[in-house]
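User
New here, help please:
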Amino acid sequence: MKALNALRIGGVDVLPLIEGGKGISISNGISSGHWAAAGGIGTFSSVNADSYDETGRIVPQTYRGRTRRERHEELIRYAIKGGITQARRARELAGTLGRIHTNILWEMAGAERVICEVLEGAKGMINGITCGAGMPYRLAEIAARFGVYYYPIISSARAFNALWKRAYHKVSDLLGGVVYEDPWLAGGHNGLSNSEDPRKPEAPFPRVLALRKLMREFGLAETPIIMAGGVWWLDEWEDWIDNPDLGPIAFQFGTRPLLTRESPIGDAWKQRLLELKEGDVFLNHFSPTGFYSSAVKNGFLNELKERSERQVAYATETIGEHVAVYGVGPRKRPVYLTPADLERVRNWERQGFTEAMRTPDSTLIFVTPEKAAEIREDQIACMGCLSACRFSNWSDGAPSYSTGKKADPRSFCIQKTLQAIAHRSNVPDAIERNLMFSGANAFRFASDPFYSNGFIPTVRELVERILTGR
């Protein structure tokens, strides 16, 4: 394997190995502090990070507000306090020279407010901001205000072109790097565009080469590109290292740091990672953000998939083949289905899926009464965690604080499920019944000799293994 040399990132020479930020307390101050202490760049997430009481116990993020806006304000306060707390923990472990970044999702409600308050409350502790999930035009302005480097996450040269021309060219000196997050390989939310087919992955090399060509046009030939998604062993990326066409390249690891001793996820989650098989990670479109996301197939995703499969189109008046009357809701308000769909509905009802729920697309899905009650309760309990949520129809835009669309029962409360798996992942049932984000290569834990006999390394051992090869 080629030797991996230090790279100039964010104004200093550092190992070009970066921990990917994973939200809702999965990348925290301990994991990122240890990664930075090992010589790379540690990243903790400011997306609803944990804070602690005077005894050191995690403060549960419970909501008492009567309205969504009141609960939204509670959520923002939790996020700010948690982000500052994790920055301090990371800095204590990394020391004065370790490089610490924080990750924020631009489509998170109140993202700008949260990151500014975290940077203000943790002055001197954070070296860079990584930001994706949307088009964070104001990221450069925020970086300039606080004197930190910024690292936009993009999935195409086209996206970076838009960001650069609109905003980033004004603050080019603080652009520490550009994260290319492969939309078919990376875990969590992915930046697939409408023109890209989730079933037909494209090789990352030509896409990153196109990004570098564009960056050279902007005078960014020496600004690192950080490859994120699908990185496992560096010898598989030898043609990227010291490649004059690509220029300086760093590598981001999001999934592999999950399986370390310092990782905050529970033992049941870690064991599940060791058992995954190829095909167990699923690129799906259920997220309330509207983005595609990559997660482990489990009971949670299976239920969502089946929920959408029990779906028929309806009309509010007879039209075409929609002539079969069907009553919806307690008052049995009439809608019109095709005769064939009515027969499908009757079959679902015989199986116990007797509750019809309307979607924004003039369709009905069919669920059990218990699931219908759960969906409605979750929609009512919305705490406004996203800038716009298709599950609850929340929007953080005044005056209506609504997307103006019907809430979509085919989706789910992402805050609820990610909090549950983050804090109950030592329980097997919790990892089966909640969303478990993962990169496409997670199945490799099971076959990689490094993890033989259930071995779980420290962060330092993982970094050393990555540097020395297989």
